[in-house]
Amino acid sequence: MVEQVRSYLEQHQDQAVSELIEFLKIPSVSADSTLKSETRRGAEFVLKQLEAAGIESRLVETAGHPIVYGSWKKAAGKPTVLVYGHYDVQPPDPLDQWTTPPFEPDIRDGHIYARGATDDKGQMYTHIKSVEAWMKTHGELPVNVVFVIEGEEEVGSDNLDRFLAENKDLVASDIAVISDTSQYGPGLPAITYGLRGILACEVIVRGPRQDLHSGVFGGAVTNPGNGLAKMIAALHDDQGRVQIPGFYDGVLELTQEEREQFAALPFDEATFMSNLGVNAVAGEAGFTTLERRWARPTCDVNGMISGYTGEGPKTIVPAQARVKITCRLVPDQDPKALTKALEQFLRDQLPPGLTMEFIDFHGCRGLVFDFNSPYMTAARSAIEQAFGTAPVMIREGGSIPVVETFQSLVGVETLLLGWGQNTDNLHSPNERFSLESFRQGTLASALLWQELSEIQA
After folding, report:
1. Of 455, 203, 422, which Cα lies nearest the Cα of 324?
2. Tens digits of residue pLDDT in 391-443
3. Cα–Cα distance measured from residue 147 to residue 83, given in angstroms and rounded to the nearest whole number
4. Residue 362 pLDDT more than 90?
5. Distance CA 441, CA 342 (A)
C-alpha cells in the first residue's frame, strides 16, 4: 500500500511544487486590512486543494478571516488526527531587502523563495498532498483526519479558540499534528516535544507632569528613566536567576535523560556566538546554552524608552519611561500567577516620586510531551523512513499557543513535526523552503498516516 503512495508522490512532485508556487503568489497578509480579499483568496485556495484531495471541506466564517475545515472519518476503529496549519503570512517588509519580490516565488539553489514558503504554507501543504496521495491511490485513508487551517495565526488567532470551543465534536481527535517548527539542522530532522510558554506585559512609570529642565530640576525629583532602570536591574541576580518571588515554583526540572540527549546533539558554542555576533553566552548559572534556550524560564526586556531619543543632546528629566517585558515559561509555571507576581515585584521596587501602570498583554503555559508515547514512536518511524535518518528529540524556546489550546480545549497532545530550517528566514526578507525538505516532509506525512493507523484508537 505504501509503495503506491510513494510512487504517486514521486510522479506528482513537480505538480505539487507548481501548486505551492500558486499558493505562495497569494499575498495573504492577515495583519494588512487592505489585503483582506487576498487573505480570503488564500483560504479559498486551501479549500480547493482539500476538496481536490477528496476531503469534504468548507469555509467557516469568523469575525476575522475564515477558517478552513475539512474532514474524512471513514476509517472505523482507527485514530483520528487533527491537522493544524495557517494560510496567513507575515508582512513582507522591508521590501528592499528581498532578492526577488516576496509574492513572486523564485526557485534557486534548491529552495523556493517567497513569503510564507516555510511559515507556514509550504510545511502545511505537505499534509494536504500526502492525504491526496492516499486518496488517489487507495480511495481511502488509513486513519481519520480533521483539517483546521486558519488565517489569523500571525495576528494572534483571536477567533480560533472560539471556533474550537464551540465545535468540540467537529475537532474531537486522538492526536494533533502541526508542521510549523524546524529540523534541528540540515540533514537532521527533529520532533519537538516541548515548548516554552510566555507572559507579556508593558510597564509605564511616570514622574513629573511634563519633561523638565535637568539643570533646574535634576536632583530634586525622581527621574523616571533612572527609576525604571533600577527596577529592571532588580529582576536578575548576578547568577542570572530571576528574582520575582515564586518564579521557580513548580518548574519542571530536566531529567538526566534529557540533559544527556541535549548534550549529545551537535552544537558548537563558538559557531553559535559567531552567528549571533556576540563574544560570550550568558544566562542562568548551572545550565548549558541549549538547556537555557529550551527548558529554563527567562525574563527579558524587549524594548525600553524614556525621554529624548533624537540626534544630539537634550538636557531633560523625562516625564515618563516605559518597558516591554516577556517571560518565557516552562512546565509547570502558571502565567497568570506569575504576571501578578511580576507586577507586585516591580511595584515593590518603584522609587518614591513615581507612579506605575502595568499592562497585561497575554500568556500561555509551557508544555512538554512524553517522547516515548506511541504517537511519538509512530512519528519517529515515519520520519526516519522519509529522511533516511532518525529524528532527534528537541524542545523549542518559543511558544505556539495553539498547542496549549489543543490540550486544554480539545484534550489532545500534539506532534510538532518541522520540515524547515531555522535558517529559512522566517518573518524576514528572503524567506525560503528547501524543495527536498518539501518532498521529504510530504513523504513523512504520508508514512505517518500508516504508522498511526497501527495504534489502537
Report:
1. 203
2. 999 999 988 889 999 999 999 999 999 999 999 999 999 999 999 999 999 99
3. 5
4. no
5. 42
Average pLDDT rounded to a whole number, residues 27-35: 97
C-alpha cell at position 390: 532518525
| H helix intervals, 139-268 | 160-166, 168-171, 214-217, 224-233, 256-264
Q: Convert the chain into a string of H (helix), E (strand) and C (coil).
A: CHHHHHHHHHHCHHHHHHHHHHHHCCCCECCCHHHHHHHHHHHHHHHHHHHHCCCEEEEECCCCCCEEEEEECCCCCCCEEEEEEECCECCCCCHHHCCCCCCCCEEECCEEECCCHHHHHHHHHHHHHHHHHHHHHHCCCCCEEEEEEECCHHHCCCCHHHHHHHCHHHHCCCEEEECCCECCECCECEEEEEECEEEEEEEEEECCCCCEEHHHHECCECCHHHHHHHHHHCCECCCCCECCCCCCCCCCCCCHHHHHHHHHCCCCHHHHHHHHCCCCCCCCCCCCHHHHHHHCCCCEEEEEEECCCCCCCCCEECCEEEEEEEEEECCCCCHHHHHHHHHHHHHHHCCCCCEEEEEEEEEECCEECCCCCHHHHHHHHHHHHHHCCCCEEEEECCCCHHHHHHHHHHCCCEEEEECECCCCCCCCCCCEEEHHHHHHHHHHHHHHHHHHHCCCC
Q: What pLDDT is recorded for position 457?
A: 63
Q: Is 57 exposed, middle or buried (0-12, 13-18, 19+ CB in 10 A)?
A: buried
Euclidean distance between CA atoms 208 and 242, whole angstroms: 30
Residue type, 24: L
- Judge whether 300 and 325 are in contact, CB under 8 Å: yes
Report if pTM > 0.85.
Answer: yes
